[in-house]
Amino acid sequence: MANARRLRRTLTVLVALALAGVGIYITSLVLNRNDKPIVEGCTAPLGDSPQQLATDQTANASLIAAISVRRGLPPRAATIAIATALQESKLRNLSYGDSAGPDSRGLFQQRPSQGWGTEAQIMDPEYATNAFYDGLVKISGYQDLSITEAAQKVQRSGFPEAYAQHEDTGRAFASALTGQSQAALTCTLRKPDAAGDPSAVKSQLTRAFGALPATAGGRTVTVRAQGTQGWSVAQWAVANAKALAITEVDCSGHSWIRDGNKGWTDSAAPDGTVTVTVAAAP
Fold first, then answer.
1. pLDDT digits (tens, 9 = 90+) for 58-100
2. Model's pTM, two decimal places?
3. Closest residue by Cα to residue 38 from 186, 185, 189
4. In contact, 177 and 239? CB cutoff 8 Å
């Protein structure tokens, strides 16, 4: 019995020492790390008041803006649409409504009972965005209206004044994502945890912008686009970098490189071509 007690005490001491050693090792790793935790998100400039959105919100905003470019609409249309979606759904594709609209769904909280389409249709962000623009372009002089007036004429909301609070964010992200502001949108992201797929990038580009002169091969997608369209495509790629494991975007003398989160920097990227690079396998 005495030998057994001594053995148990010895084992207890050894376990305690081992746990203490692990604790010291973990503590030293934490204390000696130089990297700060990365808070993911995206920013678009607006004077002295940069506007911010979460990465999933930014991806939805990029689709809304791309569809406006595809349809040849003015940037003001994208501003109105992004501000409206921020108010209606916080720029998220919601599968539920509220007490005022129990059957409301999607980015714009459109209602099947009000003729917006079936539930399946309005849960498709591409369909929902086009439905919103279909209503907006029927409004004479909508570009000259306030955000509240234009959005309310389309949405017929019970809280029409609420749209105005999102004007700054809508304007900042619309300007970048329609290509009016160059090298403007940037996203702070952690490193990808999986390889990217160039064919998936090309497919999503086509969904957003329609047919583009784009080729996919190796780890890159190359798009022939210049001017505002080129910058719209480039900043769409940054907005979707998290979901599509994009690591670099090159456009017209600038590059956005995910690693290091330094935003856009000067580079030798040629005009007329947007190159999107995805992550290799970890």
1. 999 999 999 999 999 999 999 999 999 999 999 999 999 886 7
2. 0.86
3. 189
4. yes
Tallying the residues shown for the chain, one arrives at 282
Residue with tokens 């005022």: 100
156: Cα separation from own chain's centroid = 27
Q: In the chain, what's the furthest Cα-to-Cα distance?
A: 96
DSSP 3-state of 206? helix
DSSP assignment of 217-231: ETTEEEEE--HHHHH
| CA atoms of 209 and 87, how far apart (whole Å) | 24
Banded pLDDT at 26 (limits 50, 70, 90): very low
Tokens at residue 94, please? 């919601």
Spatial separation of the C-alpha atoms in residues 245 and 25, rounded to whole Å: 33
Share of the chain above pLDDT 90, in %: 80
